[in-house]
Amino acid sequence: KKKVVSWLLGPLDAAAPQRLELGAPAVAMHVGPLDDQPGLDLATLGLDPPTRALWSWSGEGWVQATASAGPAALDVAGGDLDGDGWPDLLTAGPQGLAVHGGFAGPALGAAFVIVDEPASSIEVRHLDEDATPDLVLADPPRVVVRLASP
Questions:
Q1: How far is Cα 106 from Cα 130, in angstroms, rounded to an integer?
Q2: Domain count, the chain
Q3: 16 lies in which domain range?
Q4: pLDDT along the chain (150 residues), means of 10
């Protein structure tokens, strides 16, 4: 049985949701702007095999914009961590927090680890008064907050 994600974004009818075939179970998803096109995008994270995929809304349906493999991860988030104006894709897992580059600016490339402590979940939010996104990492029983500086 193929694993699917259903959504109701865009001009869709609730009686006929669109289905997105992932090929592998999705362990996490992030919905938000991840490319230079208007509208929201969907990033999916597969556990076995460890995969990341970006799905972009074309106005008529979803298209897979890019996909990559990488270390196993448990959660995915998006945010402009490097200050280049383009959203970056981040994954959290046993190897730590990895950045996979931006989709709209630099191409999705090899992951590079920016926090080398295990994390099972991640959030990117503005927690202080500057304009730079901050990180909240969790790996129970601990939570780590990293305030970024401009």
A1: 24
A2: 1
A3: 4-146
A4: 43 56 76 74 75 70 67 82 77 82 55 78 85 83 72
